[in-house]
Every structure is written in structure tokens, then in C-alpha cells.
TrEMBL record:
<feature type="domain" description="Enolpyruvate transferase">
    <location>
        <begin position="21"/>
        <end position="422"/>
    </location>
</feature>
<dbReference type="InterPro" id="IPR001986">
    <property type="entry name" value="Enolpyruvate_Tfrase_dom"/>
</dbReference>
<keyword id="KW-0961">Cell wall biogenesis/degradation</keyword>
<dbReference type="GO" id="GO:0008360">
    <property type="term" value="P:regulation of cell shape"/>
</dbReference>
<feature type="binding site">
    <location>
        <position position="343"/>
    </location>
    <ligand>
        <name>UDP-N-acetyl-alpha-D-glucosamine</name>
    </ligand>
</feature>
<feature type="binding site">
    <location>
        <position position="321"/>
    </location>
    <ligand>
        <name>UDP-N-acetyl-alpha-D-glucosamine</name>
    </ligand>
</feature>
<keyword id="KW-0670">Pyruvate</keyword>
<dbReference type="InterPro" id="IPR036968">
    <property type="entry name" value="Enolpyruvate_Tfrase_sf"/>
</dbReference>
<comment type="function">
    <text>Cell wall formation. Adds enolpyruvyl to UDP-N-acetylglucosamine.</text>
</comment>
<dbReference type="GO" id="GO:0009252">
    <property type="term" value="P:peptidoglycan biosynthetic process"/>
</dbReference>
<feature type="modified residue" description="2-(S-cysteinyl)pyruvic acid O-phosphothioketal">
    <location>
        <position position="129"/>
    </location>
</feature>
<feature type="active site" description="Proton donor">
    <location>
        <position position="129"/>
    </location>
</feature>
<keyword id="KW-0132">Cell division</keyword>
<dbReference type="InterPro" id="IPR005750">
    <property type="entry name" value="UDP_GlcNAc_COvinyl_MurA"/>
</dbReference>
<keyword id="KW-0133">Cell shape</keyword>
<keyword id="KW-0963">Cytoplasm</keyword>
<protein>
    <recommendedName>
        <fullName>UDP-N-acetylglucosamine 1-carboxyvinyltransferase</fullName>
        <ecNumber>2.5.1.7</ecNumber>
    </recommendedName>
</protein>
Length: 442
């Protein structure tokens, strides 16, 4: 080991971002395809034997993990630039391994397409994660209503369609909560079921609408995606399709929030402003100027920023995935802010890290109460989950001095080459240690 390695804040196997804060950002940031859409669209490709071409795929470790899971089941997968071509005519297995699925909760969503295609699936329970317990009760309950017998043993959900020649049966399902994953799982299952399925209290997230877009392009009959009631009339077979993933609203908003936190001017494109109304309203409430321009949004900070209250909600409310990044912004605005997390029970872990940078935050249950301070100070911090890691980067960009952000295995799940893109708009940010794994090498 060299002296430099001994002095480095980085362990031998761990990479970090080093950020020299307080640089003004200026320019344009390009938004990649949405991770949460891309993952479920990949799962949906299993519903057809024909080729599915997905354009605008983000280059993320989560996408690489999902590709590996699909390949292990017999799905053909190859990349052509930023497009992925998937072909499931060779789908032979219905039992993804725990080794792969434990890395990616969204892999559980495969249970719907596998049951629709083969009438049988064995998928490990995804388990909880750092932000909460993340049950899949609603997914299983809906599948049971469609004629599936489910047993859970040794942490694995074994599911088999009963009777009806192995074909799922359309039915009426009332979700207890508008779960995004349950809505997507059941929507995919219902496309090949016999008869009509009505999903009530469905999630209305843009990613659900995007999934319906692909499924319709494959020949599915779906009405109402984006509202709380979705009707799916089952068909016998789905065909191939060529489909572009929507821009990532969470990535777009992360960039807009970074512009506000550094009191900068950034143009973020392409994006769909209607996917982010609740966030854009909060940026305006704290004093940012938010202007639609072309296919994107320009954010500027004309004067002093002030605190606001926010509460995470299912779409179209303020997204839980942006609670941590927005909190990083609120640490340095004038006055008091109340941030209430209502979706996940353990999603305030970034508070302790922000406090280490000098943020004044108290928590009471699921509420964080912030008193803005003039400036954060750069220290070594850890991103404890994907969006907490993004919050640490935003805090580091705004802070005085040098911030080292660890936990990049989380960050790389959802943001492709973040440091290179931020460098291009003036940030002094670099990666120390191992370089980020390329797609499929995760
Ligand atoms: C998806 C997103 C994730 C986002 C979350 C909420 C993907 C890959 N991930 O996760 O980034 O943070 O939506 O917007 O799309 N619940 C139950 N029972 C269930 C299922 C869920 O009580 O059976 C509860 C959860 O505990 C949580 C809430 O519903 O409180 C939302 O979870 P859900 O919408 O299912 O999240 P995911 O689909 O896992």
C-alpha cells in the first residue's frame, strides 16, 4: 500500500465522490430514461415471444442486474447503443435466483409476466431494505384473486395458476394502498388473462402509464392507466414492439434541486413537467424561478430562498424518492421547514448525515423539522440508500470545503455517470477509487 493510499479517505474496495463545494453551475443537463420505467418494461418483455426493442435505456447497475436475471431465465438480451433488445422465445425457467433478485426489489415484479406466460413462477421474496419493510402482500392478494395458488416457503414465493388450463382469470381487484409495484405486476398479469380485470385504487405514477404504453404497443387492451381505475381486457397473445422509455422525472428533479441548492441556473431536458408538478410548485414556493423552455425546464434562484413544508404522497403528490434531495436544499434556506415522510417508515436516515455537515434538523417520528443555516460544511458522509446518496451529492455541491460521499453502490443504481455530467456544468466533483461498473458488469 502506498502512502497516498493510506492517506486517502477511501478504503481499498470503496470508491467515493470528492466534491469541492460552492461552485456555481451553469448550462444544460440531459435527462436519461427512467430507471423505474425501464426495469418494469424489461419485465413486461417476457409477456411476448417476439422481440421487444426498448429505446432510451439508462446505463445503470440496476438495469444490468435485471438483464442478468432475465438472461438466467433464458431471455435473449443485447444492447444496441442506448437501446436494449429482448427476446423471450427461449424463456425456459421461471425461478430467478435469490443471489440476483436480492440486489433488486423490482425483480419481484417478474412474477406477473411469468405466471401469465407459463402459469407458474418461483420468485424469492424481495425482503425489506434500508428505507422500510416493503411488503408484497398486495401483489400476492391480486394474483390469488386471478386464480393463483401461492405458498411461501424458505423465503420464496411459489405461485401456480389453478385450473383454467393454466390461464389467469380476469377479476375485480381493490388494492388496499395504491402500490406502484402491485399495480404494475397485476396489470402485466392481466394482459394475457381470460376476460376483464378491473384494478381499483391503482397507482397513478407516470411509470404505470409508461408500462401501459408498452403493453398497448404489444397489443394489450388497457384503459384508464394514470387514473385510479385501470381496466384490462385479456388477449391470447402479445406481439413485438419498439418503444422509448420516458425521461426520468426523479433524475430531472434531482438536477433542478441541485441548481437551487447551489443558487445556480440550469436547463434540464428532456422532461415532462406534468410528471413533476408537485416538485416544481415547491421549488417556486422556496423562491426559485421555474421556466419551461423547449422540452425542458430552466431553474434560476433570483433572490433569497425560504423554507417550506412538504409531505410525501403517491403521485401526483410530492414523491418520496425526492424527499431526501429536497431536504438537502432546505438545510440552507432561510427559516423553518417541516418535511413529513408518509410512504416509507425508515426514510430519514440522511438526516444524521446532513447534521454532520452542520444542518439544524430535529426529527419527531416521521417528521423532520429544519432550521436553515447559512452554509453547510464539507465532511465525509455516506449515502445510505439511492436517493439519500443523491441528497449527499447536492449537499456537497452547496457546502463550504470538500465533501467526500461514500455509498456509491447506491448512487450508481439510479444515476449514470453523475460526476461526469455535473463536471460539464461547472461542478468540481471527481470519483476516487474504483471506477463505476459498466452496464451488465454489476
Ligand atoms: C416504487 C418505486 C420506488 C418508489 C415507490 C413509491 C420502482 C422500481 N420503485 O417502489 O422508487 O419509492 O414506488 O413511490 O418502481 N405497500 C404495502 N403493501 C404492499 C405493497 C406496498 O403496504 O403489498 C406500501 C409500502 O410499504 C409503501 C407504499 O405501499 O408504504 C408504497 O410502496 P410501493 O408503491 O409498492 O413501492 P414499490 O413499487 O416497491
Amino acid at each position: 500500500m502506498t502512502l497516498a493510499a493510506l492517506n486517502s479517505p477511501v478504503g481499498l474496495n470503496e470508491s467515493q465522490l470528492s466534491i469541492v463545494g460552492r461552485q456555481r453551475l451553469e448550462g444544460e443537463l440531459h435527462v436519461n430514461g427512467a430507471k423505474n420505467s425501464a426495469l418494469v418494461l424489461m419485465a413486461a418483455s417476457v409477456l411476448s415471444c417476439d422481440s421487444i426493442r426498448l429505446r432510451n435505456m439508462p446505463d445503470l447497475t440496476d438495469i444490468g442486474t435485471m438483464a442478468k436475471i432475465l438472461i438466467s431465465l433464458g431471455v435473449g438480451f443485447h444492447l444496441e447503443g442506448s437501446s436494449a433488445v429482448l427476446r423471450s422465445d427461449g424463456l425456459t425457467r421461471h425461478d430467478p435466483s435469490y443471489d440476483l433478485t436480492r440486489k433488486l426489489r423490482a425483480s419481484f415484479f417478474l412474477i406477473g409476466p411469468l405466471l401469465a406466460r407459463h402459469g407458474v413462477a418461483k420468485v424469492p421474496l424481495p425482503g425489506g431494505c434500508r428505507i422500510g419493510s416493503r411488503p408484497v402482500r398486495e401483489h400476492n392478494k391480486g394474483l390469488q384473486a386471478m386464480g393463483v395458488r401461492i405458498s411461501i416457503e424458505g423465503g420464496v414465493v411459489s405461485a401456480e395458476v389453478q385450473g383454467n388450463h393454466g390461464r389467469l382469470q380476469g377479476c375485480s381487484i381493490d388494492l388496499d394502498c395504491p402500490s406502484v409495484g402491485a399495480t404494475e405486476t397485476l396489470m402485466m398479469a392481466a394482459t394475457l388473462a381470460e376476460g376483464e380485470t378491473v384494478l381499483r385504487n391503482a397507482a397513478q405514477e407516470p411509470e404505470v402509464v409508461d408500462l401501459a404504453g408498452l403493453l398497448k404497443a404489444m397489443g394489450a387492451r388497457i384503459h384508464g392507466a394514470g387514473s385510479s381505475t385501470i381496466r384490462i381486457s385479456g388477449v391470447r397473445k402479445l406481439h413485438g414492439a419498439d418503444y422509448a422509455v420516458i425521461p426520468d422525472r426523479i433524475e430531472a428533479a434531482t438536477f433542478l434541486i441541485a441548481a437551487a441548492a447551489t443558487r445556480s441556473r440550469l436547463h434540464v431536458t428532456p422532461m415532462e413537467p406534468n410528471h413533476l408538478n408537485a416538485v416544481l410548485a415547491k421549488l417556486e414556493e422556496v423562491g426559485c424561478s421555474v421556466n419551461p423552455q423547449g422540452q425542458g425546464i430552466t431553474v434560476t434562484t433570483p433572490g433569497q430562498l425560504r423554507g417550506c413544508d412538504l409531505r410525501t404522497q403517491p403521485f401526483p403528490g410530492f414523491p418520496t424518492d425526492l424527499q431526501a434531495p429536497f431536504m438537502a436544499l432546505l438545510t440552507t434556506v432561510q427559516g423553518t421547514s417541516f418535511v413529513t415522510e408518509t410512504i416509507f417508515e425508515n426514510r430519514l436516515q440522511h438526516v444524521a448525515e446532513l447534521q454532520r455537515m452542520g444542518a439544524q434538523i430535529r426529527t419527531c417520528g416521521n417528521v423532520a423539522i429544519l432550521e436553515g443555516v447559512p452554509m453547510l460544511s464539507g465532511v465525509a458522509v455516506t449515502g445510505t440508500d439511492l436517493r439519500a446518496a443523491a441528497a449527499m451529492v447536492i449537499a456537497g455541491l452547496a457546502a463550504d470545503g470538500v465533501t467526500h460521499v461514500a455509498g456509491l453502490e447506491h448512487l450508481d443504481r439510479g444515476y449514470a455517470r453523475l460526476e461526469e455530467r455535473l463536471q460539464a456544468v461547472g461542478a468540481r466533483i471527481s470519483r476516487i477509487g474504483a471506477t463505476r461498473p459498466a452496464l451488465l458488469a454489476a
